[in-house]
Structure formats: structure tokens, C-alpha cells
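Two proteins were folded this term; both appear here.
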Amino acid sequence: MKEGKQVDTINFIFCTDQYLLGLNKKHLNHDTLTDIITFEYNPPGQALLSDIYISIERVRDNAVVFKTSFSHELHRVIFHGVLHLCGYKDKKPEESKLMRFKEEEYLQKWFVPRGTA
């Protein structure tokens, strides 16, 4: 990604809804299902060191809701987590709009479905 960040290590941990819900309750005090939680461990200004937890169940359900493939939705969520590490937020409407724009930008640039050149 061209967002001005250096990467040390980003671990992607694929898990269940229940596992991610437990992390959400414990670390963020949110009692809701989510598709992704990103933990950043590096000191400010240092190369990214992170764990990104992704609920495969949420990704699968969201793919149905948004009428897209599981693979496309998974890639979107992966970019979403990395964009958070790059400083993008999504709590306010204008932040969410920019986040969606950046997700689509990276999906179009990097996601190539199987069987295409």
C-alpha cells in the first residue's frame, strides 16, 4: 500500500464470531459482533506491528448481504484493517465515506479474480 507506512509484521488471524466477540468485549467494551478488530503494537513513527483478527463467519454473512463473493469481501476487510493501521477512521460519516473510497481503490488495484489476467 502507498500510504506512507513501513511494515514490520502484520498477522492476520482468522477466527469465529464468538472468539472475536470475546475480544471486542474484553478490549473495546463492545458487546456486538464485528468482522474485524485491528490491534497496533508499534510505537508511533515505527514500522507497523499488528494483529488483525477477522471473523470468517461475519465475512461470509456480509458477502451475502452486500451481494459479493466471499473472496472479494475478505479482501475488502483485509484492506480495511490495514487502512486503520495507516490512520484512517470510520466512526463519522465523512470518515466512513473516505474509508470506503480507499477500500475500493485498493480492491480495484490489487484484487484480481481467479481466471483473469
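Next, the second protein.
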Amino acid sequence: MFPIWASGIIFSAVYAQMSSLFVEQGKMMDRSVGSFSIPAASLSSFNIISVIIWVPIYDMVIIPIARKFTHNERGFSELQRMGIGLFTSVLCMAAAAIVEIERLQIAREMGLVDEDVAVPLSIFWQVPQYFLLGAAEVFTFIGQHEFFYEQAPDAMRSLCSALSLLTNSLGNYLSSLILTIVTYFTTKGGNVGWIPDNLNEGHLDYFFWLLAGLSFLNLLVYIVFARRYKQKKAS
């Protein structure tokens, strides 16, 4: 069960971007709605909305359709559900990178690269990445909790459920470690690096692509161990 558990750490590192670099990206975009300027962090509400939308869709639409193909009463097994979530997290980081590429392109066209100012690209272009992250959360986190509760030995169910929650904190630490390593290597030789104070002269999109790549590798490793995993026999 340990490799399955470890796969959640990379996912949690991706999830950590919602309260960190997604916000920093949003601050450098047009946040005006009429005469009102919305806080960049407020877009995390779309993640909550996404979860609220995806839970009933999963229960009432996806499960009945999947049940016809998998012949599983639940539609998907816990392992399949987590795998779908991990794949969706790759799409989430790719969407964030594409938005950043467009934002940087506008900054170059308008000569704002050397200016620490927001570019005229609506912050609502971030909505897809928040929605994808919410969908990934529904599949991965819930699937993970179900997996560890049902597959753990009876005497270790509470412990294994707690360990599944540990991936959240470890993912945050991993995110900070990756950011530190990236900053160290990309600022060598006096370069501004991928994530400078002025994001207009950086390459935050490279960092998002890096996380997308790590998430994809994590998915491949997960598939290998998930296919080899033997389900717990019913007592």
C-alpha cells in the first residue's frame, strides 16, 4: 500500500499551488469586474464550486455509465478513481501553464516585461485550472480515503486513514522544496529565474510545466503499482 500512498504526495504538491502560485499568477492579471477589483485568492471559491458540481455528477451520471462497462457496483474501483484524479491534475497544471504563456505573451507585446504590473488578461481565465483541480480533488482525495479505510488491516484502519491525510502536509513541503531547487538553479549567473518578484520577466509557465511533468511521471509509477496491487480479501 505504501507506493499507492506515496503517489498522493505529488498530487498534494499540485494542490498546494491553489493557495500559492495560482494566487501570484492571478495578482498579475486583470482583476477588475466593473468598478470592483476582486482579490486573486478569491478565485479558490471556483475550486469549491467545482467540488460541489462534480460530486453529484459523479454519483448520478459517471457511476451509472461506468457501471455498465466495469460491472463494478461503484462504477470505478478506488484505484481507478485515484488514477483518474492524478490524470486530471496533469491537465490542471497544463491549463495553468497555457494561461501563463498567454499572459507573458501579452506582457511582451505591450512592453510590460520590465514593469511589475498586471497585464490586461482577465483573471477569469484561471477558472478552468481551478475547476480541473476541484475535479481531481473529488476523484483522488475521496478515492484515497476509501482505499485506505477498506484495504487496511482491520486493526490499522484509523492509522492508515490518518496516513492518507499526511500526504497533504508532505505535499506542501515537497512544493516548497521544488520551488527552492528551481529558484536556486534558475537564478545562477545573475539570471532572474523562473519565479522572480516581477512575474512579467520570469517564466512561471516553466514551473507549471515542470509540475505537470512530475505529475505525469507520478501517474505512470502509480499505474505500475496499481496494476500489481492485490485487493484485500474480504474477511
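The chain has a mean pLDDT of 90. The beta strands are 29-30, 32-33, 36-37, 119-122. These notes refer to the second protein only.
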